[in-house]
Specification:
By secondary structure, the protein is mainly alpha-helical. The protein has 3 helices and no strands. The chain starts with a helix and ends with a helix.
């Protein structure tokens, strides 16, 4: 089933914002546009899985999606920081 252009654009924007926020929260300062998008998109999957496992949800809509993706990206960056040591 083909994906439309709008969901793809939303995915990229959410990934960019979430990756950028996660970089600020973890004192990383950001990872560039492409790095922020990748961290944010992977973080979104981590965040949705984590919150579903804990049976918790943020606000519905775009804001909740960004918060969930940011939480997942922060967890992802924390784990990557532990693996680097």
């Amino acid at each position: 089933m083909p994906v439309g252009l709008e969901p793809l654009i939303i995915l990229i924007v959410v990934g960019l914002v979430a990756g950028w926020l996660a970089g600020l929260i973890t004192q990383g300062g950001g990872f560039g546009v492409i790095g922020n998008i990748i961290i944010g998109i992977i973080g979104a999957f981590v965040g949705f899985y984590l919150l579903r496992y804990l049976n918790v949800s943020f606000a519905p809509g775009l804001v909740g999606t960004i918060l969930t993706a940011t939480l997942g990206a922060v967890v992802l960056l924390f784990i990557l920081g532990l693996l680097r040591r």
